[in-house]
Amino acid sequence: MFDLETEIELRVSAFLADIAKLAQSPSGARNRADSANQGQPSEKDAARASVLRFEGEGEGGAGDSDRDEVVSLRRKRTPAELERMADDFLVFVAENPGRRMEYIARELGHPTHALRREVKKLLRSGKVRMEGQTRASVYFAVES
Question: Which residue stretches belong to region Disordered (predicted)?
Answer without folding.
Answer: 25-71
